[in-house]
Design brief:
- The chain has 248 residues and is α/β, with parallel strands linked by helices.
- Helix content is 38%, strand content 24%.
- Helix 7 links the parallel strand 7 and strand 8.
- Helix 5 (118-130) packs across helix 6.
- The longest helix is centred in the last third of the chain and has 18 residues, at 176-193.
- The protein is globular and about 45 Å long.
- It starts with a strand and ends with a helix.
- 38% of the residues are buried.
- The structure holds adenosine-5'-triphosphate (ATP) and magnesium ion.
- Magnesium ion (MG) is lined by residues 45-46, 86, 168.
């Protein structure tokens, strides 16, 4: 068994804050595993992803990603992670084409000042095809719809050829068919490429259909971890009454 992600007693406190946003998190995720993370607003889901991505360097405890110690190898670790943030604002006047944005996923490989080559372009186009957006390659990204922009950001993360994918509410702007396609794509990446995927979502239907591992967070802590039937009781308690039942 190879561990992709290991956290031991990890707490993260934001600068200027007294209370940690995530507290005493101990967690092991195997390579190739897909894990859905649920919980109410402010539970600490985004903070957990950003801590794993090494974006919040001040943390207590021990983090190892792909066998590397985060304190020593933060940069090396980030090269292996594709991260799609929860909120990204694209200016309507943004001149970059969608393909340029996806190519940014290759910066870690070619360097910011290097120019992408044939292979980088092929990887970017392949990632766009996986999301079904290759026809948008030459469109200015600021002129795309919210859902199209979300797909561009996911393609950018995939173009990196990551071993770990961190997706923060990737379904939020997607229509039902696109949600289904993305779920299918996540399973394929795990099955065919052994990619480890962490998905934060408020979409209960998505996780109900996944039959995989679910982590529930509340007040900065992990309050349940297991398959749907193991976590359902806790999830019903921490999410608004009736929310879960209505969705099922
Ligand atoms: N940059 C920051 N500085 C200070 N506190 C922060 C910062 N970002 C988040 N927090 C706090 O950390 C806690 C966890 O926030 P986080 O964004 O991780 O929640 P979340 O589970 O992702 O919520 P949501 O479902 O709303 O996205 C919250 O109490 C929030 O106010
Ligand atoms: Mg969040």
């Amino acid at each position: 068994m190879t561990l992709a992600i290991e956290l031991n007693n990890v707490s993260t406190v934001y600068e200027g804050e007294k209370r940690p946003a995530i507290k005493d998190i101990t967690l092991s995720i195997e390579e190739g595993e897909t894990v859905y993370i649920v919980g109410p607003n402010a539970a600490g889901k985004t903070t957990l992803l950003e801590t794993i991505n090494g974006l919040l360097p001040v943390f207590k405890g021990y983090i190892s990603v792909l066998g590397l110690d985060m304190r020593k190898h933060g940069r090396k670790i980030r090269c292996q992670i594709g991260y799609v943030p929860q909120d990204f604002m694209v200016d309507a006047g943004e001149p970059y084409r969608a393909l340029d944005v996806v190519l940014m996923g290759r910066y870690g490989k070619v360097g910011v000042l290097g120019s992408p080559g044939r292979e980088d372009k092929d990887k970017a186009i392949e990632a766009m095809k996986l999301l079904g957006i290759e026809n948008l390659a030459n469109r200015p990204v600021g002129k795309l719809s919210g859902g199209q922009q979300q797909k561009v950001m996911i393609a950018r993360a995939l173009a990196k050829d990551p071993r770990i994918l961190l997706l923060d509410e990737p379904f939020s702007s997607l229509d039902p068919e696109s949600r289904e396609n993305l779920s299918e794509l996540i399973s394929r990446l795990s099955r065919e490429r052994n990619v480890t995927v962490l998905v934060v979502t408020h979409d209960i239907q998505q996780i109900a259909g996944s039959c995989g591992r679910i982590i529930a967070m509340n007040n900065g802590r992990i309050v349940a971890d297991g398959e749907l039937m193991d976590v359902i009781e806790v999830v019903e308690k921490i999410l608004p009454i009736g929310f879960w039942r209505k969705q099922r």
